[in-house]
Specification:
Radius of gyration: 16 Å
CATH topology: Alpha-Beta Plaits
Structural class: alpha+beta
CATH class: Alpha Beta
CATH superfamily: Transposase IS200-like
Strand order of the largest sheet: 5-2-3-1-4-6
Distance between the termini: 28 Å
Number of domains: 1
CATH architecture: 2-Layer Sandwich
Helix content: 25-40%
Length: about 190
């Protein structure tokens, strides 16, 4: 076992999935120079996320698909976080295979403490495509989904479905969480 792999297994030690806890996750594709941010992948992604919801595995709040990764914010209901993400990633393998794209092993996750607010994570997710200059602020990123009950209170805080300028400078919310914050689970390169 090389030193790098030993470090990854150390990160996974003591890792637990907590039913009823809220998680923010990031999952990367293996070749970060490729682009999976297409309507076809997004439609398939929404179908697979909906299947997890309907199976009672998660209560999801938000998803955003980026060219080389996706973010999600959800409450884990059943199974483990690894099982949920394996099912989601696995369900997308056929469409990604057609594009000659695969998933990076592992994922980045942050289990939110009960006192952590959802809004900073939603602001980060909404601002992400704009921060990466994928589109001008005058347009709305189409590969983003909010649960209807979340949209009711969050969308009025936005600039007509777009991030406010100051959101583009926001730090990653998990960087502000102190000890016990974000953990890596086999990810070699976090989303940019």
């Amino acid at each position: 076992m090389n030193h790098f792999n030993r470090g990854l297994s150390t990160l996974r030690k003591g890792r637990v999935s907590v039913s009823g806890a809220r998680y923010f996750v990031s999952v990367n594709i293996a070749d970060r120079s490729r682009n999976i941010a297409t309507a076809e992948v997004w439609n398939e992604f929404q179908e697979k996320a909906s299947a997890l919801r309907e199976a009672g595995m998660i209560d999801d709040y938000a998803w955003v698909l980026m060219p080389d990764h996706f973010h999600g914010d959800f409450v884990l209901k059943e199974k483990t976080l690894g099982t949920v993400l394996k099912r989601l990633k696995g369900g997308l393998v056929p469409i990604l295979r057609k594009m000659r794209v695969g998933w990076q092993d592992g994922y980045h996750d942050h289990r939110l403490r009960p006192e952590e607010e959802l809004a900073p994570y939603l602001r980060y997710m909404l601002a992400n495509p704009y921060r990466k200059n994928l589109l001008p602020r005058s347009e709305i990123w189409p590969l983003w989904w909010l649960a209807p009950e979340v949209g009711e209170w969050f969308l009025p805080l936005t600039d007509h479905g777009r991030p406010h300028r100051e959101w583009l400078e926001q730090r990653k919310p998990w960087e502000d969480c102190g000890e016990g914050g974000a953990k890596m689970n086999g990810v070699t390169d976090l989303p940019r």
